[in-house]
Fold this sequence. Notes:
Oligomer: single chain
Helix content: 10-25%
Largest sheet: 9 strands, antiparallel
Number of helices: 2
Distance between the termini: 58 Å
Structural class: alpha+beta
Radius of gyration: 17 Å
Shape: globular
CATH topology: Immunoglobulin-like
Number of domains: 1
CATH class: Mainly Beta
Amino acid sequence: MRIQLIxxxxxxxxxxxxxxxxxxRHGGTMNVGGETSFEMVRHRNGMTFHMSDHGEDLxxxxxxxxxxxxxxxEQRRYEGQARGSNExxxxxxxxxxxxxxxxxxxxxxxxxxxxxxxxxxxxASARP
Length: 128
């Protein structure tokens, strides 16, 4: 029994690492928690979200997505479109300081994934 308990305690950090945060690969900001990783990248013409699952690109072909941006009481919604192998692009979208962002995507296979960027984290990727 003692050996099993020790083995369990030693393996817990490995389980945490399996669902850990991945570093951004495109110069953006990573979402908070969740099974699917989203990297939010700002562009002059809108925002792009790169999606991955445990470090592997998640195909976005055939996906439909909505980005909700705002703060208490006022929100804006943007329709997104799949672009590239694992990207969702939201033309004209902006996240200002103090605003939170939530992206919800329905993938081509019907799966629904959500990425949350709290106000403090979303502001980190905002450029003046």
